[in-house]
Records
---
Amino acid sequence: MPELPEVETIVRSLRHPLEGGLANSKNMNDRPGVVGRLISSAQILWSKTLAEPSSEEFLANVVQQTIQSAERRGKFIVLPLEKQTLLIHLRMSGDIRVENDQPPIQPHDRAILNFEDGYRLAFNDTRKFGRIWLVNDTRTVLGGLGPEPFDENFHGQDLFERLHRSSRNIKTLLLDQTLIAGIGNIYADEALFRARLHPALPGKEISAGQAEFLLASIRGVLTEGIARNGSSIDWVYRGGDFQNHFRVYQRTGLPCLECGTVIEKRVINQRSTHFCPKCQFSVKIP
DNA sequence: CACGAGACCTGTTCGC
DNA sequence: TGCGAACAGGTCTCGT
């Protein structure tokens, strides 16, 4: 699913002026926002999309509340309302549309928030993995997340200490949302390439200096991803451009852009992992 | 407790 | 051309 840069792009679009932009535009930069809109009704079209509370409770409580802001925590979209908070996780295939003029419900729409002014927010999710929560206390859902990569109080030394405790490989560790929040399969591979670290390297083998450089690499790829409005792959097209700038992800068999060595792919932690065996050579590889 | 495999889903692409 | 297998940006649960 969308990783941190894609979620950040969507969240920024949700903050757009209420009447600015084109409803239904493919480009997130040209879409109307939702902050300040009053929810008048809601529909749950696939019951499992609602993680909590019950459908009846959700429909009764979400109405007559105005969206106060649009934030991001890890890969979660956070929409504080007046009394409670809506949390949305897009997982693998989730997407958000904001539209008006009551266009027909689209295939794979799983939940709809109707606003008093005629606009609506549609949560579309082909694979049905996405989830929505309406909670009183966001800590019940977000409490276990690790630090935000851009938190200025999160330093290379902190990452080092977190990695150093584990014998699991670095690729798996970067995907662990309790260790650091927001990184997914694409940006893990891209960050490890920039950091010149082999994805199979055990966390405990990584030095403090390498962890420092790795955090800078993570911030670098995420920053570039956000600047390019995220990645648009396959049928989930959101107007992002970062997919045209991958250095290793989905470049299996192509020459490394740095050294010309053929990019390899192997499965780590049940996820496809792409890397340059020369640039990301490490002495200790299990 | 840490770790890996399986489950949850649908749609597209790959390989024979 | 057809058809099943493999694969896809994520995370939870269960068994060892």
---
Amino acid sequence: MVVSVGIKQQEVLLDRLSFIQNLKQADIELLRGLSWDFQEFPAQHVFVEVGDRPTRSCLIIEGVTCRITDLQNGERQIHALHIPGDMPDLLSLHLKVMDHSLATVSHCRLAYVKHAQLQDLCERSPTLNVAFWRETLIDAALGRASNLRLGELSAKERLAHFVCEMRCRYEAAQITDGSTFFLPLTQEIIGEFLGLSTVSVNRCLQELRGDELLRSERGITTILNWSALVALGQFDPTYLHLND
Amino acid sequence: MVVSVGIKQQEVLLDRLSFIQNLKQADIELLRGLSWDFQEFPAQHVFVEVGDRPTRSCLIIEGVTCRITDLQNGERQIHALHIPGDMPDLLSLHLKVMDHSLATVSHCRLAYVKHAQLQDLCERSPTLNVAFWRETLIDAALGRASNLRLGELSAKERLAHFVCEMRCRYEAAQITDGSTFFLPLTQEIIGEFLGLSTVSVNRCLQELRGDELLRSERGITTILNWSALVALGQFDPTYLHLND
DNA sequence: CGACCCTTTGAAAGGAATCAACTTATGTGG
DNA sequence: CCACATAAGTTGATTCCTTTCAAAGGGTCG
């Protein structure tokens, strides 16, 4: 379903990219010249599948999506969670065959651009070329953070690290309300992301709440003790590359 | 220590890039025009540190390097292992501050190019721009494979998956001898990569040997039963993007 | 030949998974 | 607006895979 193209929605991308690069007027015009197709999906909807050869990439306007690999036993590993402003399949611009799937976690509004347009834009503007390339590099950096969590941290530490990351990303995307933000994730999803069982996620969450590090109900998450969370999760935001 | 610049060493890069793109003559000349600084390091040598702001990137000519994050307790997570033909810090071309360290695992010979040269080359040739971008995307895909191993696979499965990946990458880099290749890694390094203790790595390796899936001594690894290894590790080489 | 690093082995402890049930939300239709 | 159905969260008991601890064997190199 194609919905109306609102200027405000396009600005999501401008906000994101201007954050990291000094865009010249010409670049801004190139970005504004992109034509987007808007599409909405319900929660739990797979919108890109392994093996697909996408001809366009999407920008998340609203909602949360995840990058998934399915396993034989029906389990699945969530490699990454993406929030508004992210372009979860920007990589398909140069990796022709998808090596994973993308699915919505919550109800989502996505904006699609054709690869051809992006390629053209990258050839015209070295600045934008770098900006988009850089987006894929930061996406990869988030993957390294996942490695760290999965490989070295305990269940409780993983959860703390994860919350810290999300808080920073939400803040960067300017969708926080003070130290409160809305994470529309079930404990099952969090478990699939952190390599934990739902039961473990639940218990660790309760511990974090009991330790008064955070409050959370129905996805509405409030950080109560940031420094303690950071320490527990050994969280170092360098990998988010928000300031370089 | 800067050593002599051999033509053969430069070809490592050409081989790698021509594998994935149809290079035009002009591109090949641009690549040949790059000036490399060759440097050698002993094993266990950290050559890029967290927080560094590199002005050049390296290509591995010989040896194995690793991408590392150090933790408080002295443990470290190895995010990735790189082999000849890989450019482990190509990402520093656009991520100014390193969010991890790079270290040699075995004795290494590295070839360095200045970022300025690479940037210039990317502006001159859209093809090469894509080729290098794509290299960083594949690097990220390897990270997703790590996620999968760490998050969903048992110790034995992780090891199997890992061996499968290395075999494919070694083959692509043309440094195999039939089903035999040289992995200069201690069990400790493998453990740090797979999120396992040295003891577990050792026991799983013995199992794989006992099951006659592979043979290995002093890093010399021989695959005895490829399909069984692939099945055990649930290995799907799509993410290596060797054919697209 | 001894020092050192890597590998191997055994026994015990522990963190998280699993299984199963129960409670609390969310949502739909009568 | 309540009854029922479904999804999400919570709890307890048990099992199991890995880790940890500790020590012995084996290879390499000065």
